[in-house]
From TrEMBL:
The keyword Methyltransferase does not apply. It is found in: Cytoplasm; Nucleus. Coiled coil: none annotated. Residues 349-360 have a biased composition (Acidic residues). The keyword Transmembrane helix does not apply. It comes from Phoxinus phoxinus. May be important in protein trafficking and/or protein folding and stabilization. This is Aryl-hydrocarbon-interacting protein-like 1. Pfam families: PPIase_AIP (PF23322). InterPro entries: AIP/AIPL1/TTC9, PPIase_AIP, PPIase_dom_sf, TPR-like_helical_dom_sf, TPR_rpt. TPR repeats lie at residues 264-297.
Length: 477
């Protein structure tokens, strides 16, 4: 059953969703609380903004450590262990929630809770970059509104019951912890344990940034902490160089240079990182800037430039050989592909084209031969019409007996047997016309034409007289 409880604090309403099973714990400065939370908009859909259960990680907070969203301390201190409650909080308590939510989301994905390499406080970062990196948080930042927080208190530990980490320290304890962490990082670096050293440097940087956010930017206390933070960040970058994390080195040193253009060591480390990733022009520019800021670094800069020149010569030679080999390989592959491509053939088979061409040639040759035979027998002065017509008529008659029309002279219309038959006829016609016993029939006189060849009174007709009349009238040319 839900119970509405007024906490006596303006702008807060509590609704108990599930009562705790234990007595209310004691909360003092340094008490560590572990809890789940769900943040919702106060709309009809009760839109969920963040949910620690979905992220798979409960939230931990130390009472009295000036957590940015201090209203959460008030809410948790009103709860029993195991209790689940919903709190409605007015806009006067939720204005900083977008910034806190950004840090919580970064923790959930394994990132640093703050962008410690950006050397301004949280509010300054927000105005400088105009975005928190999340659209819903940006919208909430532009238009602050009341929020619902559903919380479940899991565990409460007193200061003596847990080992305090740097994030759980108060400001004075954090400042005291920085030199200790710095020394531990230096020792690990000398031992070659670069990854372990980065953890110590990062922890020290976090302590400084947490304290620095409470100071006014660019005033003396803030600048003192800034100088300490830059020194630790550059040590951190030296470890990253040994770990070959060159682009991260460029990122961190560039942030320092943007804020402090006279940071000679930042230019030097960035130049070395540029050299490792073959950024020749950028590396030269950074090394020359080191020389401008500190002429005493002349010998070191000269050595670094010589190393840069040698590395670039080796790199250029390697690239030349690599590209040469690559082009040679491509040429060989293209040549092999050309050898594998089969010759393109026409749609017709190789045997079809010669057959079709032979049929056409035979037809043309046959007709040409017929004309030549006729011309030879009629003489140069005579018209070859009679002899030619005689042979052509016999040729056409023979084709009709072979079921071949005169137009069927290609391979598609006539079979090889039919073509052979035509060739035989051609040879027979040639032999008959060139024989000495063969004579061109004389034109029949009109009287003979009028006689009936079948009449019983007519004289017997000789074989020569029975020859069909193929002559053309004298008036035809």
């Amino acid at each position: 059953m839900e119970d509405i409880v007024m906490l006596g604090v303006e702008g807060i309403k509590k609704t108990i969703l599930h009562g705790g099973t234990r007595e209310k714990p004691k909360f003092i400065t340094g008490t560590k609380v572990t809890f789940h939370f769900r943040t919702q908009l106060c709309n009809d859909d009760r839109t969920v903004i963040d949910d620690s259960k979905k992220a798979g990680m409960p939230m931990e907070m130390v009472i009295g450590n000036m957590f940015k969203l201090d209203v959460w301390e008030t809410l948790l201190m009103s709860m029993h262990i195991g209790e689940v409650a919903e709190f409605w909080c007015d806009v006067i308590h939720t204005g900083l929630y977008p910034i806190v939510a950004k840090s919580l989301r970064r923790i959930a994905v394994g990132k640093d809770p703050v962008d410690w390499h950006i050397h301004t406080c949280g509010m300054a970062n927000m105005f400088a970059y105009h975005s928190l990196g999340y659209d819903d948080l940006d919208e909430l930042q532009k238009e602050p509104q009341p929020l619902n927080f559903v919380m479940e208190l899991l565990k409460v530990q007193q200061p003596s019951e847990y080992d305090r980490e740097s994030w759980a320290l108060n400001d004075k304890e954090r400042v005291k912890a920085v030199p200790v962490l710095h020394g531990q990082g230096n020792k690990l670096f000398k031992q070659g344990r670069y990854e372990d050293a980065t953890l110590k440097y990062k922890e020290a940087i976090m302590c400084i940034k947490n304290v620095q956010t409470k100071e006014k930017a660019w005033e003396a206390p803030w600048l003192k902490l800034e100088k300490m933070g830059n020194m630790l960040t550059l040590n951190y970058c030296q470890c990253l160089l040994r770990m070959e994390e060159y682009y991260e080195v460029i990122e961190h040193t560039s942030d320092i240079i943007n804020q402090h253009p006279g940071a000679m060591k930042a230019f030097y480390l960035r130049g070395k990182a540029h050299m490792e990733v073959w950024n020749e022009a950028e590396a030269k520019e950074d090394f020359m800037r080191v020389l401008d800021l500190d002429p005493g670094m002349k010998k070191t800069v000269k050595k670094e430039l010589a190393v840069l020149k040698m590395r670039m010569e080796v790199k250029n030679e390697e690239d030349r050989l690599k590209y040469k080999g690559m082009f040679t390989k491509i040429a060989r592959e293209e040549e092999s592909l050309e050898l594998e491509i089969p010759e393109q053939t026409s749609p017709e088979s190789p045997e079809e084209a010669p057959l079709e061409e032979t049929a056409e040639e035979q037809t043309n040759s046959m007709q040409t031969t017929l004309k030549q035979i006729t011309l030879a027998q009629s003489g140069p002065e005579q018209t070859p019409s009679a002899s030619s017509d005689h042979v052509i008529l016999e040729h056409n008659t023979f084709l009709s007996t072979q079921n071949v029309t005169p137009e069927q002279t290609t391979r598609e219309a006539a079979t090889p047997e039919q073509l052979n038959a035509v060739q035989i006829l051609l040879e027979q016609s040639t032999s008959e016309e060139t024989s000495p016993h063969h004579a061109t029939p004389e034109p029949t006189c009109p009287e003979q034409a009028d006689q009936d060849p079948l009449s019983s009174d007519s004289e017997q007709t000789t074989p020569a007289q029975m020859t069909p009349e193929y002559s053309t009238p004298a008036n035809e040319t």
